[in-house]
């Protein structure tokens, strides 16, 4: 049986339609402008899709987790939805939407007022908006109840609340977002509510993805200022969005990821190509290098700056990593501006392609033209391109 924890931020996204570019600290103003909640409807859509998929038969529980139900416990919650149990919060934070979707939830918590008094029914509906503290408490309850996935409905702020609470609990419980906020920059959201429901029912493995949030006040002034807030385990699925490009932040994040790898593997020799994106990697490794040339680095030391093909070959070790970025507008990974990275170098190296999502959005495919058809053929096909510290995007090389 699959046990899903569901938490809804009922005010998420209210500011978008009325031009507030976010709801953080702006709920009263949004309501004055006539804003209507959108998160509850999106939550219901996701839960309906989840229930429909579960009725067709969903995967069993994760290893070591029986979901708390025995083989003959057929009269428990969601008995009509094979293999599914919804654990949620009272009222507008999940229970209402779950029942609207035709599912019968297990309720493990209630939203509270700032003094901790629980609110239910009409009192809850008339009360002030729910808080981040309510979301975080819901996550704690879900982990205590050993859920297989936390399905949250909201935007980046809600994603941060969920991810940070999981980190505080040292929990590897995966999370998945139903997009309902104004700003959805994190890579933990499905592309639609319905997709979230299907992924929640069907996933069988997870991967590490980034949780980002932006400064809403700066955003209202026209500046996108984003920060990596957390890392989270997220189901692997095609119907998940990538992190949105946020200026130089994504380049800095992917540079940090390459830097982490390089510092952990002291024996590896890094061949770093030209361009500003790989230049960010060089800065992460604490050297300037050649902006238009190829540099060779190993274990904290710049071995050769602006190296020729022969100099690169002479300094290779047993393990080598070539780091390159496609030329914007053309998509060439090899064969344009980096001929120093010869076929002989490529044959002895692992290749790491790095690029901002913004650059990849303008490229249909990546291209190679090393001058050696056999090497070109070995590079062709689908390849993971690093677009963040942990996040990668699949691109086809032709």
Main CATH class of the largest domain? Alpha Beta
Overall pLDDT score: 80
Give the termini separation: 43 Å
Silhouette: elongated
Question: What can you see in these coordinates?
Answer:
By secondary structure, the chain is an alpha/beta fold. It folds into 2 domains: 234 residues, Rossmann fold; 149 residues. 31% of the residues lie in helices and 22% in strands. The protein contains 14 helices and 16 strands. The strands form 4 sheets. It has a 7-stranded mixed β-sheet. The protein has a 5-stranded parallel β-sheet with strand order 3-2-1-4-5, sandwiched between helices. Strands 6-7 form a two-stranded antiparallel sheet. Strand 4, helix 6 and strand 5 form a beta-alpha-beta unit. Helix 2 packs parallel to helix 7, helix 5 crosses helix 6 and helix 9 packs across helix 10. The longest helix is centred in the N-terminal third of the chain and has 17 residues. The two termini are 43 Å apart. About 15% of the residues have low confidence.
Any descriptors?
five-stranded parallel sheet, 16 strands, alpha/beta, Rossmann fold, 2 domains, seven-stranded mixed sheet, 398 residues
